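Risk register update: the risk of archive-format incompatibility is retired. Evidence:
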Amino acid sequence: MANNPQYHHRRSIRLKGYDYSTPGGYFITLVTQGRDCLFGEVVEGEMICNAAGIMVKKIWLSLPERYPTINVDIFQVMPNHFHGIIIVDVGATLVVARDIVIRNNRAGTRPAPTVGEIVGSFKSITTLECIQCVNVHAWISFNGKLWQRNYYEHEIPVGGILRDHSEHERIARYILSNPLNWANDKENLL
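Archived output:
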């Protein structure tokens, strides 16, 4: 789908000056370039992932191996987008943080990754894997980039930041019910 400014306008809702490496939960959404349905299909309210969708799940679940101070929480792969909650772990100790800095050979940098860095890694890894599999396994091809630039952080919660347990529960229900609502999903209708 071509870029239509009437529908495709993005402004950052990130809180200015907020440190997105601060411990807590963050709700993000990524959308495929052109809203192409590359990851499977919704059948009778259930998401049926193809090989590309399974790859996206696998890489999402492996993010804590790359970033030991985070956890991944509830997520949902959809035909043309992805919802997930990232938990920046409050349990990281200075020893863990020091080990991360040493392992990454980035002495002097902040040990906790920002949400943007985590999302950037996820997008990069999934894109590279998808390019290889398009060439080797004849997955559905895509034009240029797998994902749209940037990512959504939902206004509610503000800046994608989950403020309390009840907000987390509400967002988790939204994410998990996404396949049931696919027929009316704005990512499906545009």
